[in-house]
Amino acid sequence: xxxxxxxxxxxxxxxxxxxxxxxxxxxxxxxxxxxxxxxxxxxxxxxxxxxxxxxxxxxxxxxxxxxxxxxxxxxxxxxxxxxxxxxxxxxxxxxxxxxxxxxxxxxxxxxxxxxxxxxxxxxxxxxxxxxxxxxxxxxxxxxxxxxxxxxxxxxxxxxxxxxxxxxxxxxxxxxxxxxxxxxxxxxxxxxxxxxxxxxxxxxxxxxxxxxxxxxxxxxxxxxxxxxxxxxxxxxxxxxxxxxxxxxxxxxxxxxxxxxxxxxxxxxxxxxxxxxxxxxxxxxxxxxxxxxxxxxxxxxxxxxxxxxxxxxxxxxxxxxxxxxxxxxxxxxxxxxxxxxxxxxxxxxxxxxxxxxxxxxxxxxxxxxxxxxxxxxxxxxxxxxxxxxxxxxxxxxxxxxxxxxxxxxxxxxxxxxxxxxxxxxxxxxxxxxxxxxxxxxxxxxxxxxxxxxxxxxxxxxxxxxxxxxxxxxxxxxxxxxxxxxxxxxxxxxxxxxxxxxxxxxxxxxxxxxxxxxxxxxxxxxxxxxxxxxxxxxxxxxxxxxx
Length: 544
Fold this sequence. Notes:
Layout: H1 2-66, H2 68-71, E1 108-111, E2 131-134, E3 157-160, E4 166-168, E5 178-182, E6 220-221, E7 224-225, E8 230-231, E9 238-241, E10 244-247, E11 254-257, E12 262-264, E13 267-273, E14 276-280, H3 286-319, E15 347-349, H4 356-361, H5 395-404, H6 411-415, H7 422-431, H8 433-437, H9 456-459, E16 463-467, E17 482-483, E18 486-487, E19 490-494, H10 507-510, E20 527-528, E21 539-543
Helix pairs in contact: 1-3, 3-5
């Protein structure tokens, strides 16, 4: 009897111990799971913050490019800001410690310029400021005619995954234009130190401090370094240049790598790669290209209208009555690489000055394009005109000459001339020529005033005009120019970015309208349409 009680008591003790053990086990497992869930939740929050910061940065860059002309008078749309190299949030500017953005055409990498874009500082889920690389073909300084931006300009960046597959930029036409990086936590031998007392919001005013070096933030895997834009073994394609990280050469392509976080298989706590990046591709840039094309079309329109006003001025000076109709010059045949105005050419490209064929068809026409609208500067080009044939005693004779040369109401210039000394007159007029060339519509010499039309060289093969017969130098009624079935004085067409299969390199390419315009716009006929879809990107506007 006593033995039985002891057995029952012993079993009760074992049961209680087992219950306590199970309780402890369950509590431990619950604590572990809650910790894991909390850790996962925090990680998801960090990832969401990173994704938000990258998306906001990309949207701001697109907005900057789309409104570049509005904020930089006289300059085309599409440019992107240079990175911030000292961590103060601003693109390089005079008076700062970072004033350079590398040489023309060289890609650059630095921090994201949040202040320049009117944003608060953007940080990823780990609290780090974002980094940013921009193609040398799209950065907004220094500009030059050699690397002029158009809708056909390609980015210079490709992106690979961990399996060495190219995910962005497998052809030149779809290379990334810019890349935004989240650097994540410090890993490996990275050093993010700075000089005491020189800190900025995201870096240091001392450009050579480690905190400003992208290699201390952006990682390398599979022999590709995001800080170098290329392979580690060759030193990468990005090198330190006057304390700014740029490509070694202009138009050099750079490679970057995208992956999930990678940890050491032998030491799970050792992180090998934790960059996150977002690319800006030509597909992302489509709305910006559209604005670029529209900006060019309306600049051309304003110059054509100004030219008709010159015609009206000439007509009134010669005939003493108002011109009966707006008239436009002959176009350039698409096979003509000299861009000479072609007699009887109603459809083609914008001709270069002097417009001799136009002038010979109707002597009321100016022989030069007008000045850039809203620019006030004397402009004269003698073009071999014999000044001795002038009646120097008749100011109206000289006024007519100046009108023919592209001047409208330049009385101040007339008042300053000595009309009795032909040689002095010639010298005075010649001395104004270099200045006026910078402000004339469709000039290719570059410009010192608000950039002007120096970019025309890169765009001129993409712009076409169609002139109604009733508004041509030789008026007739044989060709009615229609836009969406409505008669127009003139139609201006700007070809969009090249589609697959189009080429604009050789003389043959440039003489083939199908490489520029789509649908019924590419037959050089009298009927044109407006549209915009995946297979049609012509920008078409009309006068009036």
